[in-house]
Design a protein that fits this description.
The two termini are about 50 Å apart. The protein is α+β, with helices and mostly antiparallel strands. Helix 1 packs across helix 2 and helix 3 packs across helix 4. It has six helices and seven strands; from the N terminus they run ααααβββββββαα. It has three domains: about 90 residues, no CATH class; about 130 residues, no CATH class; about 30 residues, no CATH class.
Length: about 280
């Protein structure tokens, strides 16, 4: 669901600090669960002091920190403890079920989704989504040069489109965002999720990865970031056009002396694009 559609107006998305705290609590619980599981396995193999051995094994496998500090490394090359209670911390994953159980679980999930959309809350959410999309399309119709190919999502929120002939990609996750323009093929084809099979298992496909030049980064606290689809589009387009304007502006370099004389003071900012000028 797009983040600008909120049915329960009393509910708030977690802040970055709250999200980190939630992940750490889940990680502590996951470690306890895996320690108990490993202790039971080691005890069954006749290992003495199985609990202490389990603690050592978990630390050696999952505690990887930067050599110049205590910050934990999150690189996926290291074994990681779960940082959420998804699938009961891994103990109730789909891999623990038979094909028939996976198929039944998948169909139950589809039924739950249908029931949700048919409920009053679902209808309200659908109406809000449609209103937000209609407002965005109306805004786009008034702004030639701007095309949005896709938008929405949550964790991450992503936008793809074109502004004045320049392709762009916007991504926000955990309150941090960045904008890329002039996307180009990289020759890499990562595996991405492409729905689910009939038995509930995940279907994958290869998609060519494109990458552009990062022109701006920031957080959701930035001025004019907004909460609606239209406000987000305005935010993205304003940043991109500002970048393009600064990139193409000559900053009146050939007339700076004339402008300085007319103003009686040095010119520190370009009057056209607003960029700070170097001291002369």
């Amino acid at each position: 669901m797009p983040r600008w559609v909120t049915v329960d107006h009393d509910a708030e998305l977690p802040t970055a600090a709250e999200y980190r705290e939630r992940r750490e609590r889940a990680r502590v619980e996951a470690r306890s669960r895996y320690r108990d599981h490993l202790t039971e396995v080691l005890h069954g193999r006749g290992v003495d002091d199985a609990t202490a051995v389990a603690d050592v094994v978990l630390d050696e496998l999952t505690e990887w920190c930067y050599i110049d500090g205590s910050e934990r490394c999150a690189c996926s090359c290291h074994p990681q403890l779960p940082d959420s209670d998804r699938h009961d911390y891994g103990f109730d994953c789909m891999c623990t079920r038979t094909r028939e159980q996976r198929r039944a679980s998948f169909h139950q999930a589809l039924n739950d989704i249908r029931e949700l959309w048919q409920s009053p809350n679902g209808e309200q959410t659908r109406a809000a989504n449609q209103a937000a999309e209609a407002a965005l399309q109306s805004w786009l119709a008034q702004h030639p040069g701007v095309v949005v190919h896709s938008h929405g999502g949550w964790a991450p929120e992503q936008w793809r489109g074109v502004v004045d002939g320049h392709s762009f990609y916007f991504r926000e996750r955990h309150d941090d965002w960045h904008i890329e323009i002039d996307l180009r093929p990289t020759g890499r084809f990562p595996t991405v999720i492409d729905g689910h099979h009939e038995d509930g298992t995940t279907r994958h496909r290869h998609r060519e990865f494109e990458q552009g030049d990062v022109i701006a980064t920031g957080t959701v606290d930035a001025d004019y970031y907004g909460t609606t689809a239209v406000q987000r589009a305005q935010f993205i387009v304003t940043i991109i056009r500002g970048h393009l304007r600064r990139k193409s502006c000559t900053h009146h370099l050939e007339r700076l002396d004339e402008i300085t004389a007319a103003l009686g003071t040095s010119v520190d900012w370009c009057p056209t694009c607003g960029i700070r000028l170097r001291a002369r």
